[in-house]
């Protein structure tokens, strides 16, 4: 299929449209309804009551509208690709549809960015069409998987691919839910009547949500309530300098790289009264735009099923099953993974002013991995990937923080055409952020990426990069996301 690019504006919009600013608002809790909370501004519009602003999403949801939208979206995408892709893969008809219905599913070899970035973004559109039509997460996941299957069978004439079903159906759902939540958080902070700029920014984050709000505003203009989730956001702009590395089979490493990085942690543990009853009531989203390769990463992980817990007076956390989608492309290699993991996230107060926040996860995913700038865009392979993540933030009051994150992926030879081989990938970073004035801060970050690939006939091939960067950081709050329940 044709590449669907995620513009760098996605990285910017959550901050520039005001996700960092909180309004003086009241959270109204409504018992015995399907809506747990609706944000009501402290000053209501003329001739409006609180009851007027309560919108029951369950009553107004539609199963038909997102189905029609997904089919229409796939039809338009197919027509666009027929005319402009230069490939005959999209010349589908009744004969090819019938053939695909009776074909076995396989791995395809579209270019890496199409399969591992374009397809998940396409899936996020399916998911957001359903979510913004009032459907819950699990219903929307079903629509995303169905939309992916419809495209594989009817959108292309080539046989359907199982890797696309995973990246579009499940990866798209994980990415789509994060984008849907961020879009609604931008709107929610605008009160009962979000401004034009908030509406525009929210639509940039989640276009399908923006479309339904505009085209069907009488029915789908309610804002999905965050239930006053505690969140931490930051936007970084700076220069990263390569200080070490081994390009391996890739091109020479470029020394300087301008970067734009956005991170949001949503539903941080510890706030009294906040519960994790809905999928992605806790999630982390990060994306980095790069002058070297456009997108260096898009990563999101969220709690699908779990609960919170408390140990003593100073520690609160949550645990359960997480879903994640990762796309990582430093200068030397590239990897993408859609995974399920068991894990926990928590916060511990060490003293009156020092807090620790951390996450540990371990699970299994389906990953694609290959070299950057290889012989062809199809120079990559798939495999089942056990993987893990450990992240720690040390918060020194309102003044500074140290962030340490490590990820590891072991891409095995299970479902790998190059048998008896594997890839071991490690990504680790450490960053120090110092708040200079209000929400303005300076950050120093060291990032290490390494791929160790072992295959018969090729031996042991290593690729690595080590970069040191300095960034201007705009914080979403005057602090670093710590929750003080004491």
TrEMBL record:
InterPro entries: DUF3943. Pfam families: DUF3943. Residues 105-207 form the DUF3943 domain. This is DUF3943 domain-containing protein. It comes from mine drainage metagenome.
């Amino acid at each position: 299929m044709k590449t669907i690019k995620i513009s760098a504006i996605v990285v910017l919009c959550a901050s520039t449209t005001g996700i960092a600013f909180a309004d003086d608002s009241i959270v109204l809790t409504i018992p015995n309804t399907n809506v747990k909370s609706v944000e009501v501004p402290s000053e209501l519009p003329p001739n409006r009551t609180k009851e007027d602003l309560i919108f029951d999403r369950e009553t107004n949801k539609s199963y038909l509208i997102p189905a029609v939208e997904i089919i229409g979206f796939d039809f338009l995408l197919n027509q666009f690709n027929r005319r402009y892709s230069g490939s005959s893969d999209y010349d589908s008809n009744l004969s090819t549809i019938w053939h695909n219905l009776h074909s076995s599913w396989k791995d395809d070899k579209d270019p890496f960015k199409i399969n591992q970035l374009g397809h998940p973004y396409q899936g996020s559109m399916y998911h957001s069409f359903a979510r913004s039509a009032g459907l819950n997460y699990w219903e929307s996941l079903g629509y995303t998987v169905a939309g992916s299957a419809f495209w594989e069978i009817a959108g292309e004439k080539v046989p359907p691919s199982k890797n696309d079903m995973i990246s579009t159906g499940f990866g798209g759902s994980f990415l789509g839910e994060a984008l849907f939540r961020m879009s609604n958080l931008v709107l929610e902070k605008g009160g009962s009547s979000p401004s034009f700029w908030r509406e525009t920014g929210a639509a940039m984050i989640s276009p399908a949500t923006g479309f339904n709000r505009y085209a069907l505003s009488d029915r789908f203009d309610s804002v999905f309530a965050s239930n006053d989730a505690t969140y931490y956001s930051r936007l970084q702009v700076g220069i990263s300098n390569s200080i070490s590395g081994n390009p391996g089979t890739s091109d020479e490493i470029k020394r300087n790289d301008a970067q734009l990085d956005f991170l949001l942690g949503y539903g941080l543990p510890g706030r009294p009264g906040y519960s994790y009853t809905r999928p992605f009531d806790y999630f982390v989203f990060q994306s980095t735009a790069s002058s070297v390769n456009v997108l260096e990463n898009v990563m999101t992980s969220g709690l699908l099923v779990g609960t919170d817990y408390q140990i003593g007076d100073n520690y609160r956390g949550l645990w359960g099953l997480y879903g994640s989608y990762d796309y990582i492309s430093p200068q030397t290699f590239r990897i993408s993974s859609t995974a399920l993991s068991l894990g926990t996230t928590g916060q511990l107060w060490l003293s009156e002013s020092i807090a620790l926040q951390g996450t540990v996860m371990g699970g299994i995913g389906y990953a694609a991995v290959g070299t950057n700038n290889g012989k062809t865009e199809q120079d990559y392979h798939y495999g089942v990937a056990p993987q893990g993540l450990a992240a720690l933030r040390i918060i020194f009051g309102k003044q500074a923080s140290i962030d340490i994150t490590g990820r590891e992926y072991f891409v095995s030879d299970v479902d790998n055409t190059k048998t008896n081989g594997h890839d071991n990938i490690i990504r680790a970073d450490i960053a120090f952020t110092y708040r200079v004035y209000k929400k303005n801060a300076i950050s120093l970050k060291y990032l290490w990426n390494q791929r160790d690939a072992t295959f018969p006939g090729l031996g042991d091939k290593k690729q690595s990069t080590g970069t040191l960067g300095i960034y201007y950081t705009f914080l979403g709050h005057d602090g670093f996301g710590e929750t003080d329940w004491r």
